[in-house]
Please model this.
Amino acid sequence: MSSALCTAGAGAAALLLALVLTEPLRRFAVLHGITDRPNARKAHTRPTPYLGGVAVAVATLAAGTAAAIARSVLDPALAVLLGCGTIVCVLGLVDDLRQLGPGIRLCVETSAAATVVLVGGHPTLFGGAFDAVLAVLWIVFMTNAFNLLDNMDGVASSLCAVIGGVVCLTDASDGPGVVMAALAGACLGFLFHNRHPARIFLGDAGSLFLGFTLSSGVMVLHRGADGLSVPVVLLLVTLIPTVDTALVMTSRYRESRPLLQGGTDHMTHRLRRMGMTVQQVVHALCFVAALGCLSGSLVTHGAVAPGVALVAAVLVGAVAVRLLLRVPSTAGLPPHAEVRASTPGRTARSVGTLRRSGTLGRRVQPADVPHSREVGTNSAMFPAASGPPAPNSSRG
Model:
């Protein structure tokens, strides 16, 4: 079987698997109460189930493994990539069901990333062990950056589908190409259920899996590269999550808020406050992500000088952050709208806190919250340090 046909087959199979598996998982989550329940801080009016990420992970792993076997790709790096992706997915699933501390999450994520780097290799920038450390840190950072981006219907899965698809079409080799194609296909299949208004959410099991698998796949793909082109390509491919993190950190510093406190100050939230619809936000971010991936491909193939691309990416990111900082980070939101609990246990504890504070029972108008998923659960990299009086805060 040819490489192109095998890769295309992996994407198509993953798309169908995710499309079919998501609905029974949605029903299972509803039946067992694995849902994001509405309360005074949320705009959605009915419990929305998690476990969508499990469908994406199963579809990606099954299609990727089958395609690799059919293609006779016996690369150990591919096996490690899929195996560590499974571990990260299980980590996220446990966190969905029972909140884990950031220390445990970071420990598991770092161990998985280190395994991928040690077995699959990494690009060369400075030479020596320092390059391996940088590679591990970048994978962990991107894993949690995608966890943070999962704050609006269809955003994380759409971005992953676009980035994985473009990388697969322009730069991927046999092993990483199969994984990227399967991941992009699984995200597309899941989007039939996750596009606005979403019937099911990724959960941490999905958002962590997306970030880890995508960043690890790109890292393995560029394991033979060296020089300035390596960090430039990685920056261009992940421009959206990188700019979003810079925006959030800068905003919280300027407003004298704890840097690790969750909130509705991401680019998705600000674009919504500018009057864009959810679909427009998703389309705009995907367009920029595709341009970044194509620019990275041009750098990889020597069509654009790495220095020129780096300057352009930094300027675009700086201008975007500066313009978005002009949009209020919390305008139009009720006092406790910045955070939400993401599991049944967390919801119960948060409701008790809201009763004591007098917030529960106060009516929240739909116009107050631009979108029902503008707030989410912690990421391991950016856990909430303080803020509204809920014992567990949310993604963002």
Q: What stands out?
A: The chain has a mean pLDDT of 80. Residues 265 and 329 are 5 Å apart (CA to CA). Strands lie at 35-36, 48-49.
